[in-house]
User: What shape does this take?
Amino acid sequence: MRRTTSRLMRGITLLSVLALGATACGSSDDSSDSKPVSAGDITAALEEGGTVTVWAWEPTLKSVAANFQKKYPKVKINLVAERSGDKHYTALSNAISAKKGVPDVAQVEYFALSQYSLTKGLTDLAPYGADELESKYTPGPWNAVSDGDKVYGLPMDSGPMAMFYNKKIFDKYKIAVPTTWDEYVDAARKLQKADPKVYIANDAGDAGFTTSMLWQAGSRPYQVDGTKVSVNFDDAGAKKYTDTWQKLIDEKLVSPITGWTDDWYKGLGDGTIATLTTGAWMPANFVTGVPQAAGDWRAAPMPAWAKGEKASAENGGSSLALPELGENKELAYAFVEYANSGDGVQTRVDEGAFPATTAQLQDPAFLNKEFEYFDGQKANEIFAESAAAVASDWSYLPFQQYANSIFNDTVGKAYISSTKLADALKTWQDASIKYGTEQGFTVEN
Assistant: This one.
């Protein structure tokens, strides 16, 4: 989805300045929370009670909060859920800057987590026992919330990727479901030849999709070491992606429709968009947004770059974190652990969330769930295999929000002009380096 940049850039600039100030002061090890917090401390806080303010838009947290309050009647969860995306981060950044009104718990997407952790804006949860929870999570989400021996949030959900495809359309034109990206290009050509109105997918240029594709292809464009970062899209993995996707763009095999629009939902519903490669959180959106195509769609593994490969990637996903300036730390951590590691996980899964926890992903009841929308397919089996195949060494920039906000002005040109995708990625790279340097980061390519 497209992002507005005015307020977003203001918040990011502020965070970058704070980051440099923290680095200059050399205060990385003088956190007030470096002393271990015992289980007894947390139990005592729960018995005493209090209020925990949570800024999070994830809908299943409403039930989690209600159940938590029933279990701990002296604790009130004040769930503030009216903001999401850029508005959420702008409000959070402004509150941190003003040192006023900072929530006790905040939902932070994985791609945005490092910009807050780098600025000392988040509490290290390791002293609370979070460092002992690694084995509960799949590698991709855990890598996103941890940095060495520090843990800056607990994974709430994940988005291991799969390819959703319209079986009715593929059967109608007798086209095999692609298992590699080369087969995917061939299928796109066959679909267009069979019916010029049918596209293999829509793609008008999307930062999240592009970085996920690079992730799966083995590209690692971002390297981060504190305020030292590198941005480089010139590697073998990036070339795999650009060479393949350029064919789809040049031959006009992808629809120029932007995702999450009325036209997009219509295309998914009437068969003119035949596949969607995205995170495992998508099924609920099919049910509510494309009800007319129930029974037509199925899930399949994300196409591989080479026959037999199992590599996947994440697309989307969030953590719950404790802002450093928040209060009631013991109560806040107790809620986060309950929601993302304890009984709250199953509550969320029962309401349609896709877990980041291995227990749920390995649970026979979860794996054997039949999706009515997919004509009874046990799609979670595919999603769980994808989660296990995600490489855990991916990094986002500490100013990824800004980088994403300029994607359409850089890489987006490859979709509407003669600019090649590889050249457009280079433009995105240069613009990201320029911005990072201006904000005081040491940036290399």
About this structure: Residues 47 and 74 are 7 Å apart (CA to CA). The longest strand covers residues 50-55. The chain has a mean pLDDT of 92. Residues 6-25 form the longest helix (20 residues).
